Amino acid sequence: xxxxxxxxxxxxxxxxxxxxxxxxxxxxxxxxxxxxxxxxxxxxxxxxxxxxxxxxxxxxxxxxxxxxxxxxxxxxxxxxxxxxxxxxxxxxxxxxxxxxxxxxxxxxxxxxxxxxxxxxxxxxxxxxxxxxxxxxxxxxxxxxxxxxxxxxxxxxxxxxxxxxxxxxxxxxxxxxxxxxxxxxxxxxxxxxxxxxxxxxxxxxxxxxxxxxxxxxxxxxxxxxxxxxxxxxxxxxxxxxxxxxxxxxxxxxxxxxxxxxxxxxxx
Length: 266
Prior knowledge:
Elements (H helix, E strand, L loop, with lengths): L2 E2 L4 E2 L4 E2 L4 E2 L4 E2 L4 E2 L4 E2 L4 E2 L3 E3 L4 E2 L4 E4 L12 E4 L4 E2 L4 E3 L7 E4 L4 E2 L4 E2 L4 E2 L4 E2 L4 E2 L4 E2 L4 E2 L4 E2 L4 E2 L4 E2 L4 E2 L7 E4 L4 E5 L1 H6 L4 H15 L5 H11 L4 H12 L16
Parallel strand pairs: 1-4, 2-5, 3-6, 4-7, 5-8, 6-9, 7-10, 8-11, 9-12, 10-13, 11-14, 12-15, 13-16, 14-17, 15-18, 16-19, 17-20, 18-21, 19-22, 20-23, 21-24, 22-25, 23-26, 25-27
Antiparallel strand pairs: 27-28
Helix pairs in contact: 2-3
């Protein structure tokens, strides 16, 4: 049975699962669906277009499905779709999509810290951590098991791969390939995300092969085209190598933290 404070506002058309707790002064709009075992804290606003899964906790002053901050949006009906087991902390703002029936998507088992802003049509994967005051623009994709430390900024339309660590305050203005650590402004390759990969029980041999891939890309001074050829020829075949190749090829070999060279073969 749900527990709804008499001081909360819940629109009669909102759909609530079982055992939902809604605290005083929370606002639940029409066209909202909230799954089982969620907890909505005081002054949180769950606006039209919210589709929230099970066992999520949304803290004070968070706003889910805020209307997009984009001049292209003309009032189209769109959504924010949130998975299960997430914690969304104080003053987080998540904008819904700008296109008809489009959605901003948050996966499952992630922790989004205070004052983070997630723009329209962005997709956040599973098991992610977004630190305090992270800013993610629209049409961004963040992979699974990725950490964006406090005050990181991701520009629109870029893709951050799986198992990435973005250090605090970094401005991401390119596609960040999987398993890497990026830091500083301008953004700089800082190495392989070995600490987190070891925590995930990835063998040292696999981490070494990942490091070989990125030595070719970031530390030899050759073009991305030639680095990719060397990876294919010189590095042992593993699922991680395949993921790196697919990411590079899928983004036209345009990666963050690489110098722009007129003679690059892409």
